[in-house]
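Exam revision sheet. Question 4 asks you to relate a sequence to its structure. Input first:
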Amino acid sequence: MDNKRNQQDHEDSPNPHLLPGLRVHDTADASISRRGFLGFTAASIFLAHADRKSSRSEPRNGIPYRTLGRSGEEVSLIGLGGYHLGKQADPQESIRIIRTGLDEGINFLDNCWDYNGGESEIRMGNALRDGYRQKAFLMSKIDGRTKAAAASQIGESLRRLQTDRIDLLQFHEVIRDTDPDRIFAEGGGMEAVLEAQKAGKIRYIGFTGHKSPDIHLKMLATASKHGFTFDAVQMPLNVMDAHFNSFEKKVLPVLLKNGIGVLGMKPIGDHFILESKTATPVECLHYAMNLPTSVVITGCDSLPILQQALQAARSFQPMNSSQVGALLAKTAKAAEAGQFELYKTSHQFDGTYANPQWLG
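Answer key, structure tokens:
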């Protein structure tokens, strides 16, 4: 399969340049020595091995399943990203992609209130008719930081998705240092989400972000200060994140320690990693699967790309430290400045930066 035509994990932009002056929090991540490789890969293997021993589930139609943190929910190792489903020219093809994924053994579906002006949720809602809702662990996201905005967006998502219950609702794009305090403030978005959970409209609560592991850590700390523990957290986990301002290094151990489900996204870096010519699509997917992720979410805008993701999941075998080390060695130089992780180093992936009104 042509490596250039592959999954993307979010929005393309006509201006793929680094954001001038954007601060990288951990400059030490920009370069890893040979000694660092060995220690880092050993730690990764240990974490992955420990997690798989405790959370492995029986495969379904050849697709591995894992446990979503302390929730006990069984979810497919591969998750179907929602953004590109709404970009597909033919809405019926989007429905075919979703239903084929569910029929082939995927159960984890990703979406968001703001994807393609709601079109992604509308198409997914149509796909989940005729008994397909029962096959899916349905996740969507909201942008609202205020109680009013969050409540309104939850209602819209439920209507578009044609369901009375979202299995996992997440705060989307926690990318600003101010986001945690806004969400947990009096009259903040968390109040609406907890009320929706109490009413049975949502089951589990999480958050996502792609900008900075330090902001993820602040969100987790702010939750803890308010006596709250998230059920799941979504973040970039890929062969380049391992080298640069790394969620894998900083956030992943905290999630595992607290029994929080790990949702890996951007395994191919929104296709940019492929442009570096350092790793194949399947290598990228297998690297993310080798981590103690509950789900690796990847965008599929066609049936051939879906089949590639399914095959990657079915062919996955745990990687040893030598295999991981070799892959990280190939990607180290290209990863140094974040040029292939533009979601960290630019604003082109920040929908709420371009549309601050979504925050409320």
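Marking note for examiners. The first strand starts at residue 56 and ends at 60.
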